[in-house]
Amino acid sequence: MDGMRIVVLTGAGISAESGVPTFRDADGLWEGHRVEDVATPEGFARDPDRVQRFYDERRRALAAVEPNAAHRALARLEGALGDDVLVVTQNVDDLHERAGSVNLVHMHGELRRARCAACGARPAWEGDLVGRPACPACGRRELRPDVVWFGELPYELDRIESAVLACDAFAAIGTSGAVYPAAGYAALAAAFGARTMELNLLPTAADVPFDEVRAGPASVIVPRWVDDLLS
Ligand code: APR
């Protein structure tokens, strides 16, 4: 195991058993809300309060959820292999951090941050944004959720891509592979010689077949996968 560089891409499925809704499963977030209304800059421009309320509600819900065994297993993997492990999450919840992951990139942003449209500051944020609070950095009242919407550039793409190109193993956990660039990372890793794995409730029809597929709930299959890696 020593020296093996692992990139783990996680999606909403890793947080499902913690009680955080996914997007595209039955009763997922995109069943109750139109993406164009709550996850695009145009939707925000059209009705900012509707968008702020959508993310305020999801931010508040974080207080009632806990990391599950899958999040904890990834933190254990990092504890054992250190900087050879990087978790790239599409999720905007804070469950990886709360489970102990440190080498972590939130490519779609974080519910627990706001972003100032005026000065670009990204302050940690707990409360609601719907009341147009002042930016702690510049004082203007142009804070929005620090979540990457459709049509916007995800965060830290260079760092992610160089890690994907350099890794020996790439695992996609709990993601439908519906959204790029995240959905293209498995094929990119494979093209550069990495062994690719998918851990998902149901095998997804990935554009490039994974070398290994483990099906089942993340809280069961991820700890087993980490045990196997560390054995
Ligand atoms: N264990 C493992 N996998 C699960 C579980 C579970 N308990 N429950 C659901 N899944 C899997 C589903 O099979 C599906 O493949 O998690 C995946 C959830 O897919 P999506 O809801 O599409 O979530 P995600 O892949 O993270 O979406 C990517 O789309 O809407 C945007 O920005 C949003 O980051 C999000 C991106």
UniProtKB/TrEMBL annotation:
CC annotations in GO: cytoplasm
Keywords assigned by UniProt, alphabetized: Cytoplasm, Metal-binding, NAD, Transferase, Zinc
Record: residues binding substrate: 55, 58
Principal location class: cytoplasm
UniProt-annotated binding residues for NAD(+): 11-30, 90-93, 174-176, 200-202, 218
Gene3D superfamilies per record: SIR2/SIRT2 'Small Domain, TPP-binding domain
Compartmental location: Cytoplasm
All residue ranges annotated as the Deacetylase sirtuin-type domain in the record: 1-231
Cofactor note: Binds 1 zinc ion per subunit.
Reaction catalysed by this enzyme: N(6)-succinyl-L-lysyl-[protein] + NAD(+) + H2O = 2''-O-succinyl-ADP-D-ribose + nicotinamide + L-lysyl-[protein]; N(6)-acetyl-L-lysyl-[protein] + NAD(+) + H2O = 2''-O-acetyl-ADP-D-ribose + nicotinamide + L-lysyl-[protein]
Transmembrane segments: none
Pfam families linked: SIR2 (PF02146)
Keyword Transcription on entry: no
GO molecular function, one term: protein-succinyllysine desuccinylase activity
Function: NAD-dependent lysine deacetylase and desuccinylase that specifically removes acetyl and succinyl groups on target proteins. Modulates the activities of several proteins which are inactive in their acylated form.
Domain writeup: 2 residues (Tyr-55 and Arg-58) present in a large hydrophobic pocket are probably involved in substrate specificity. They are important for desuccinylation activity, but dispensable for deacetylation activity.
Protein name per the record: NAD-dependent protein deacylase
Organism the protein comes from: Microbacterium saccharophilum
